[in-house]
Amino acid sequence: MSRKYKFRSQDDLYFISTATINWIDVFTRSLYKDIVVESLRFCQREKDLDIYAWCLMTNHLHMIIGTRGRKMEHTLRDMKQFTAKRILEALAEHPEESRHDWMLWMMERAGRRMPGNDIYQFWQHDNHPIAVFTPTVLLQKLHYIHQNPVVAGFVERPEDWLYSSAKNYYSSDLPLLDVLLIE
């Protein structure tokens, strides 16, 4: 099946968005958010993923990414499989989670509709990759990513959101594009 949005070249930067199934607000607890952050760090170290900007919201993740070799779609697939498994395990280990039964029911229901799925569907399949070709588009996507928690009313300043790269950009004295290009 062809999708409109694809990774067309591994040499380009991409803005990606991925969400939990049915936009379930799973990432309201640090336990679940930390699993995603740990997995992203692993992908940077071991799977050639370059993350230039990111923001994890309550039910979705935005990033600007590139690669040093491995296909981005394969890395994202692996990251999503790993985090889904670990978060589902965490839910099973913490039945006192107030939304435990409801979240598992929703994920199981979604999983039954997906061919080849084991039991649960945690993430939506698409990553909605958009190639970032110009500095203007790059800055627009960077602003969009970091303003997400502000627009949602969670924080007043982007750099105050803990699960985001905004603090790396807004606390620097360097121009924004210079920060982006420095490792």
UniProtKB/TrEMBL annotation:
SUPFAM superfamilies: Transposase IS200-like. Transmembrane segments: none annotated. InterPro entries: RAYT_transposase, Transposase_17, Transposase_17_sf. It comes from the Bacteria. Residues 9-148 form the Transposase IS200-like domain. PANTHER family: REP-ASSOCIATED TYROSINE TRANSPOSASE. This is Transposase. It comes from Hymenobacter cavernae. The lineage of its organism: Bacteria, Pseudomonadati, Bacteroidota, Cytophagia, Cytophagales.
